[in-house]
Design brief:
The complex is a heterodimer of chains A (326) and B (295). Chain A is built from 14 helices and ten strands. With 326 residues, chain A is an alpha/beta fold. The relative contact order of chain B is 0.14. The chains are: A alpha/beta (326), B mainly alpha (295).
Chain lengths: 326, 295
């Protein structure tokens, strides 16, 4: 008996690991979806782009309020991860913040736009060129190309047409992301062609420009504008794009507040890209619970969009998406 | 009686298995990385991958040179900053500082070692980057502050606690008799440190530096937040750099739809592993040779 005593700890360990194993295996068991008087039930797994993550969390919460037996599991990790997870069948929906590539469609990717977002060029609020009318003149696409693509180091003076000798400090994102991809697409290239100092993450890029008086960068809507005040984030200035290149920022091109920016995107005066659709992607076709969820997002779900700080889809887009789902 | 022997045999064998498992992990990692990175090795020659400095994955150009140079430059410069400061601190702590001060300071240094690297990164963005930008202005370099120098400074600060605590520990093991003998011959305190303590402890000091280096070369988050991440070979301290760990962390999981990108990132990881292995083996054999000489 004495010897047996020394084995007791081993048994305890074995039991411990066994219990962990059992608890894990029960987690992965997928609850089958069925309709009942409590609405839908089941689990929807989502992963993908950071750009869509806060929106998805809100939608998940609201959907679970209506259907208490539904669980929405959301994890972020980037657009590429969302696509590969969805195509590999690891998740039901992948969140994508860039255009869907042809290879991904060929592999069975099926997607709908769910919400709009945009990327804005931002400069430091203390930029010396602002006192020479930069805010009134805005910047043109060609000037952005000179800065980010050809790398012709322009001075702020050249941009506003004065003698200012200070060189522009160009910033870009270091991590592979939808925002940089979208901005590059606006300039006619891919993310790897963007010149400039690479900074990690949307908040990082905003911080870098905030600290550099001569800096210029780009940010997603929610990082360029302050959620509460609707003005650009303190220390930043969103620079309006002179789309028709008449040398003046017309009222419809004005991006000085968030509501004006959203107005410009909705009316199409802000070019697309950098305005962009965010997508949900699934393998082959939307079915069952996932389909119900998407239909809800495209109808009632759109009511939460502005609250979280995104831009609603245009009614025609919703109609087209709905038709595809039918 | 039988039980006792049985248990002994059981212990010997099971510990042996556990040891071989832990030792084989490095090979398992290397083989895994190699298998995943194979596709790119079949299509491009290894010399082209290592020597080319053109990084344009979409056009099929995978040149690792900027990343390899970036990794080595950031680490080497961080170590040249850190080693003298750390050794002098450790000598002060072990030889000069009053006992109470030493006991007070050691936990503080240990706390430094436990701070998550992302916090060092944030602090680097807020403090070091503007400082380096100002330094650049003073010395006539136009720089954003996101450059090799910032990366090296942040990295040096991150390895301080490792080198300082190991080196202090090593200096403290030098026997008191050695001090006494030296002092009794009329040597000053500094002469004692220089000729007796440093000599007796040089192997341990070497080990401390190797530990700091190993920590520095793979550091990812803090460095990538301040180093600028531009895939060009840096020409000066005020140029941005792009170390291998930053490349992997920035792109893994995002660009998988580009053919060969996945394999290229795996190969990057393998290159990093090889660099670390070569360095560690080199340090190991240097230590062995020192040991043999001293015998």
């Amino acid at each position: 008996m004495r010897h047996l005593k020394s084995f007791i700890p081993i048994f305890v360990y074995l039991l411990f690991f066994l219990s962990i194993f059992i608890s894990f295996s029960s987690c992965t068991k997928k609850v089958e979806q069925q309709s009942s008087e409590f609405g839908f039930s089941g689990t929807i797994k989502v992963s993908g782009a950071w750009a869509l993550y806060p929106m998805m969390v809100k939608w998940g919460e609201e959907f679970q309020k209506i259907h208490p037996n539904v669980r929405v599991d959301i994890s972020a990790g980037g657009a590429g991860k969302g696509v590969s997870d969805a195509l590999a069948g690891l998740v039901d929906l992948g969140m994508v913040s860039r255009e869907i590539k042809q290879e991904e469609i060929d592999r069975g990717g099926c997607f709908v736009p769910v919400v709009k977002d945009a990327v804005f060029p931002v400069i430091n609020a203390a930029n010396p060129a602002l006192s020479y009318g930069l805010a009134q003149k805005g910047m043109t696409r060609q000037q952005f190309i000179d800065l980010w693509i050809t790398g012709k180091t322009l001075s702020w003076g050249e941009i506003v047409g004065t003698e200012l000798p200070e060189k522009v400090a160009v910033y870009t994102r270091s991590d592979a992301c939808g925002a940089a991809e979208t901005w590059a697409k606006y300039l006619g290239k891919m993310q790897e062609n963007l010149q400039g100092i690479g900074v990690y993450g949307d908040p990082g890029l905003a911080e870098a420009v905030k600290q550099d008086k001569l800096g210029i960068g780009f940010n997603n809507l929610n990082y360029a504008y302050d959620m509460k005040t609707g003005l650009p984030v303190a220390g930043l200035q969103v620079i309006s794009i002179d789309v028709n290149e008449n040398g003046v920022i017309d009222p419809e091109e004005d991006l000085s507040t968030k509501s004006k920016a959203i107005e410009a995107i909705m009316t199409g005066h802000y070019p697309s890209p950098p305005a962009r659709d965010l997508y949900l992607l699934t393998k082959n076709s939307f079915q069952g619970l996932t389909r119900s969820f998407i239909l809800w997002i495209l109808s009632e779900g759109q009511n939460f969009v502005e609250e979280v700080g995104y831009i609603k889809l245009a009614p025609t887009q919703i109609e087209r998406a709905m038709q595809e789902l039918q | 009686m039988q039980w006792r022997r049985l248990k002994d045999a059981f212990a010997t064998n099971s510990f042996r298995i556990i040891l071989s498992l832990t030792n084989s992990i490095i090979f398992i990692i290397a083989i895994g990385l190699f298998i995943k990175g194979k596709p790119i090795l079949f299509q491009k020659s290894i010399s082209e991958l290592l020597v080319s400095s053109i990084w344009q994955p979409l056009k099929g150009h995978f040149g690792f040179l900027p990343f390899i140079i970036g990794t080595i430059a950031v680490t080497a410069f961080a170590m040249t900053l850190a080693v003298p400061i750390c050794l002098l601190s450790a000598i002060y702590l072990a030889e000069y500082a009053p006992r109470r001060l030493r006991e007070l300071l050691r936990p503080v240094i240990d706390v430094l070692a436990g701070i998550p690297s992302v916090i060092y990164g944030l602090w680097g963005v807020i403090v070091i980057v503007p400082l380096v930008r100002w330094l650049g202005q003073v010395t006539g370099h136009i720089t954003s502050g996101y450059n090799l120098l910032s990366g090296a400074i942040v990295l040096a600060i991150m390895v301080f606690p490792f080198i300082i605590s190991v080196a202090t520990e090593v200096f403290l093991t030098v026997p008191i008799e050695a001090h006494e003998a030296s002092l009794s011959l009329g040597a000053t305190r500094w002469e004692t440190v220089k000729h007796v303590v440093l000599k007796a402890a040089r192997r341990g000091v070497m080990a401390a530096i190797v530990l700091g280096f190993a920590r520095a070369i793979g550091e990812t988050m803090a460095v990538l937040m301040v180093v600028g991440n531009v895939a060009k070979v840096p020409k000066s301290l005020f140029d941005p750099a792009y170390p291998l760990p930053a490349l992997i962390a920035n792109n893994y999981g995002e660009m998988m739809s580009i053919p060969l990108y996945d394999a290229a990132l795996m190969l990057a990881a393998l290159i990093l592993l090889v660099i670390v292995t070569i360095f560690n083996l080199g340090a190991h054999f240097t230590l062995l040779r020192m040991e043999r000489k001293s015998q």
